[in-house]
Design goal:
Blueprint: H1 8-23, H2 34-43, H3 49-61, H4 67-72, H5 75-81, H6 88-106, H7 110-114, H8 118-126, H9 133-143, H10 153-161, H11 171-182, H12 211-229
This protein binds iron/sulfur cluster.
Iron/sulfur cluster (SF4) binds next to helix 10.
Length: about 250
């Protein structure tokens, strides 16, 4: 049985340091433009990233992976292009709705939209159909460089399995714990041996952002790699996981 943790923030900091030492930066989000991040954030809902990549390739091939492309393309064509990402009718309608919001509220300008204060813009995004906290924070963090940590299923699973938070912890409780834990840490030292899942540096991964934003970006990417390589939904592969030493010989919580 895992002991009760007296200092969950300290534990999260140690996770981040251990993962960075083991694998270095993972270069999230793999995209060449802010709009590509936004499209990817919508398309990745309820599907694997490999399916998103196929849909994105279709959009790119049709020259539709840009604001005006999604604005102009007929809905039925958009549905056909993003079909590999699943729920394609729903996702196509939501992408169109995002453009309508951007045009009506910000004159079609992502720069104007992202110039809003973080909390206000987050509330606006959460008010759009099809945008939950994970999608809103992905857009804010990766496309807008707002300092938000993106909580995904892997984050929840890893923190629960290590006895840091209950499995049913609220999204914003998890987010604020992680943000408190790592916000003021010194800049990470680049590592020469990336994990097998690290992306190649992209325009978005190399964009200028605050130190806090960079920490949130890097930790999220590292957690995705832990989830994909080791912390599977069933039967976690703790052997070889950089976070295994933090179990102190105990079994992960179930
Ligand atoms: S695989 Fe095991 S050691 Fe790694 S994060 Fe999951 S529970 Fe922890």
């Amino acid at each position: 049985m895992l002991p009760q943790l007296a200092n969950p923030e300290g534990q999260v900091r140690q996770f981040y340091q251990a993962l960075l030492s083991a694998w270095g930066a993972q270069h999230w989000w793999p995209a060449q433009s802010r709009f590509e991040v936004i499209v990817g954030a919508y398309l990745t809902q309820n599907t694997a990233w490999t399916n998103v990549e196929r849909a994105m390739a279709n959009l790119r091939g049709a020259r539709a992976l840009r604001l005006d492309g999604i604005r102009q393309i007929p809905l039925a064509e958009l549905e056909a292009l993003i079909r590999p990402a699943g729920y394609f009718r729903q996702k196509a309608a939501r992408l169109k709705r995002f453009i309508a919001f951007l045009d009506a509220r910000y004159g079609g300008s992502l720069t104007r939209m992202f110039a809003q204060p973080t909390a206000e813009l987050r509330a606006e995004l959460l008010g759009l159909n099809g945008i939950g906290p994970e999608t809103a924070d992905s857009i804010l963090s990766y496309a807008g460089n707002h300092p938000m940590f993106v909580v995904d299923a892997y984050t929840r699973r890893i923190l629960h399995r290590h006895g840091i938070l209950p499995a049913a912890a609220a999204y914003d409780e998890i987010r604020s714990l992680v943000e408190r834990a790592i916000v003021g840490m010194p800049a990470p030292v680049p590592k020469a041996a990336p994990s097998p899942l690290a992306h190649s540096p992209s325009r978005i991964s190399r964009a200028r952002r605050s130190a806090a934003s960079q920490h949130f970006n890097d930790l999220h990417g590292l957690i995705v790699s832990v989830g994909k390589l080791h912390c599977h939904k069933t039967s976690p592969k703790c052997v070889g996981c950089p976070l295994a030493p933090f179990l102190n010989g105990c079994e992960p919580a179930v």
